[in-house]
Amino acid sequence: MLKEYRSVSEIAGPLIVVEGVEGIKYDELVEIRTTSGELRRGQVLEVNEDKAVVQVFEGTSDLSAEDSKIRFLGNSLTLGVSPDILGRVFNGLGNPIDGGAKIIPDKRLDVNGEAINPMARDFPDEFIQTGISAIDHLNTLVRGQKLPIFSASGLPHNEMAAQIARQATVSGEEENFAIVFAGIGIPYEESEFFVEEFRKTGALDHSVLFLNLANDPAIERIATPRIALTAAEYLAFEKGMHVLVIMTDMTNYCEALREISAARREIPGRRGYPGYLYTNLATLYERAGRLVGKEGSVTQIPILTMPDDDKTHPIPDLTGYITEGQIILSRDLYKKNIMPPVDVLPSLSRLKDKGTGEGKTRKDHSATMNQIYAAYADGKSAKELSIILGESALSEIDRKFAHFADRFESEYLNQGFDTNRSIEETLDLGWQLLASLPKEELSRIKSEYIDEYLPTEKESDE
Predict the structure, then answer these.
(1) What is the tens place of the pLDDT at every residue in 11-47?
(2) Which of 289, 291, 293, 423 is nearest to 369 (CA)?
(3) How many CB atoms are located within 10 Å of the residue 419 CB?
(4) Contact yes or no for 322/89 (Cβ under 8 A)
(5) What's this model's pTM, rounded to 2 decimal places?
(6) For 412, which DSSP code?
(7) What domains appear along the chain, each with residue ranges and CATH number?
(8) Which residues form a coiled coil (predicted)?
(9) Which residues contact 117 (CB under 8 A, 6 or more apart)?
(10) Which residues have C-beta within 8 Å of that of residue 102, sequence separation ≥ 6?
(11) 3-state secondary structure (DSSP) of residue 84
């Protein structure tokens, strides 16, 4: 029989402290009945002897320490799952908000999943096509990888997230591919943008959306990515689907962690974030991967906005340590109206070599990737030199590289948010750009690839 407690001793921010408790467990769900009869939910955050610290999902406004009634339910937060979750929109706690019928679950899963055991991991090595050249060719995403996007305030990361959700696919597995989208602390206008984008393009049919709004309690943000990953793991490892999880904005998640940490009066770490921020983020990111003997996979693209455009801020800094690379958006490219504004030189996918090559993309993928990186870097250097010394100080080859850099940005990077390029189209475009350079400068490409793929000067100008 469940006991009811009326021994709330303290209310601080989203937390309440209940005294005189017995047999309470960490992460246990809690019901709080207010003086007006309203029922709120919470979760045990800490247990110390006969005291329990409870985080209240709906917030503690209008709660009275003297009159609130507390019941500990004996189980942790769960998500009801079935194949019917595909095509549905839920709030941050997994309740339907699209006007559809309630989900009749096949089972209920604890949302506090665990990181994949390294011994059970299968190595990520299968190409995922996003339709974005700067990712597919230069920072390749593979199945089971976690590859974050580092953005900043005002940059079009939402449009890029919607584009990836519309276009991403695994070759030959189009019918077995799913998107799980988690909006964490996003404004109402952004949530409507995502829902509308998914609906009008038909992507909603193979997607599951979890939307936690900016005016929802901060404590709900802690649960939203865990609920989304639980749905992804169910579809991947029980239904054999290839699932891409897009989570935006992880900065809002970390801010919620900081708020709760402050309410618990914990000793702050860097910039006021809790000392366990790295560990907490790892519990989310390490749920991506492939399992030996399982067909499905969970691939993650977390999106975060860097405060003050600072890559050394704790959120992008720690995220970069955990994940296998990062895609960085550039404010300078955005000001030039280049969309999506992917800054390819500091971006990195540490698993790109595992998902490319003959049988996966094309045999010339790796060579052209290296050559384009080198040529673009040389072109940027030449352009910087011309700013200092003047264009007349550049050699003829410097001018060619500077011209290559301009064409690379305007023709290759600037594809817009509605263009879906296949990897073959992207590779061919790369060859057209490389044709503007002298053959002797293509030192990173095998001569047989140059003979087979390099277009003539006339073809490259068309």
Answers:
(1) 888 889 999 998 888 889 999 998 888 888 888 988 9
(2) 423
(3) 14
(4) no
(5) 0.92
(6) I
(7) 4-75 (2.40.30.20), 79-354 (3.40.50.12240), 364-453 (no CATH)
(8) none
(9) none
(10) 96
(11) helix
